[in-house]
Amino acid sequence: MVIVMDGKVNEGHINNLSDKLKSMGFKLQMIKGEDKTVIGIIGDTRKLLSFPFYSYYGVVDVLKVSKPYKLTSREFRELSTIIRINEVTIGGQEAVLMAGPCAVENEEQIDIIARKVSAIGARVLRGGAFKPRTSPYSFQGLGERGLKMMSEAAKKYGLLVITEVMAIEQIDMIANYADIIQIGARNMQNFMLLKEIGKIKKPAMLKRGMSATIEEFLLSAEYILSGGNKEVILCERGIRTFENYTRNTLDLSAIPAIKELSHLPIIVDPSHATGRKELVGPMSKAAIAAGADGLIIEVHPNPEEALSDGAQSLELSDFERLISELEQVAQAVGRSMHLSYTSV
Ligand code: PEP
Ligand code: MN
């Protein structure tokens, strides 16, 4: 349930209502704007069906949010959420590029990649140090050592860091190195992990589970938002279908659908969505054309030797070509890109 109050109300008027609701056991989230204050009520709102909201000064609207997710919905927040990290904005006019290897492998590898993707225009360096591999015998990541290498390379070339957290015990340590915490597809419904991410003050990128519906995806985001962390970026990374030519099927329609249902930014991972490097470019263009707020792309200086996901990793020169072509698509849909074509 969402209560809309007139922008002219003062703190006292807001407190009259919010104190009463809190005393009834509800948790509240507020957005204070110039012309209105919006209060989201979290809890079992069936108790409020006959509550006299309009007798409280300044209440102009009571919206029963029809969706099972509340804080994530457009009904709760009309304006799109823009996440600001240093000078980077995610969810605004710029289509943001995140790029890097599937896994951090060694200092040289991550340095070469960071230097190149930064020169091309990426804002965020991706790379896994704790890898959720299907087989226990596959490379599992370098752990904290990998995070150190990655954050050094990112600092050197002016990039932000995004990396995956797989378990609650890792959150504090990973938060020391990362600017954005990634929750992988396999953990999209790890509700205990989501609750803990809800308590931290750091942007989180939630990837869509491989068999999750859009509603389940948004409900997982709701776990984080309802814990108090409002900086959530969604990531469409393909879902499992009967098609097995591609690793997953990129659900392009999820982008405009989510834009309509939610105020959160959504970016696309064409690498895990397709599993094939030759499809990464076309799907990147399609994603931007469909309204994605950015892309997260796997790259490697030598994909044949990559310790994970070589088949879907772009060589650095292919990445550069793709990005130069993407700009026109971005412009056609009114987006800008932070690009510099200086080859390094
Ligand atoms: C990743 O981005 O490193 C990853 C493992 O992706 P996903 O969780 O989407 O499979
Ligand atoms: Mn990968």
Give the end-to-end Cα distance, rounded to a whole number of Å: 53 Å
Multimeric state: single chain
Strand order of the largest sheet: 13-12-11-10-9-8-7-14
The portion of residues assigned to helices is 25-40%
CATH class of the largest domain: Alpha Beta
SS content category: alpha/beta
The name of the CATH topology of the largest domain is TIM Barrel
Largest sheet: 8 strands, parallel
Description:
By secondary structure, this protein is α/β, with parallel strands linked by helices. The protein has two domains: 62 residues, 2-Layer Sandwich (Alpha-Beta Plaits); 250 residues, Aldolase class I (TIM Barrel, Alpha-Beta Barrel). The chain contains ten helices and 14 strands. The strands form three sheets. Strands 13-12-11-10-9-8-7-14 form an eight-stranded parallel β-sheet. Helix 2 runs parallel beside helix 3. The chain is elongated, with a radius of gyration of 21 Å. The mean pLDDT is 95. Bound molecules: phosphoenolpyruvate and manganese (II) ion.
